[in-house]
Specification:
With about 100 residues, this protein is of the alpha+beta class. The chain is about 30% helix and about 50% strand. The chain is built from 2 helices and 4 strands.
Length: about 100
């Protein structure tokens, strides 16, 4: 399995419900792909460099995980369909293989 890093953000709200929904979706998808989550780090609320769909800041989450390369496409698809996730990026981490 290869090491990957996922960074995504959700629109900040008064409650943490959207963040929890997105986190549960990410965890369940990685487990379904027979991957392993190494670390989940809540990066907190940060200002965006530019406005995205009328949003100027976001609650960021960083996920370090291992899975097969074919699983990244499925995770990417699931994240695009997850309404709570505004933007995401998955990168391969060759230094952690």
């Amino acid at each position: 399995m290869k090491a990957y890093e996922l960074l995504y953000f959700v629109v900040p709200t008064a409650d943490d419900k959207p963040k929890k929904i997105a986190q549960e979706r990410v965890e369940s998808t990685i487990k379904k792909l027979k991957g392993k989550i190494d670390n989940i780090e809540d990066q907190g609320r940060k200002a965006l460099a530019y406005e995205v769909d009328g949003v100027t800041d976001g609650d960021y989450m960083l996920v370090d995980f291992h899975c097969e390369p074919e699983g990244v496409a499925e995770l990417n698809r699931v994240l695009r369909l997850t309404v709570e996730v505004q933007r995401h990026m998955i990168v391969a981490r060759n230094d952690r293989d």
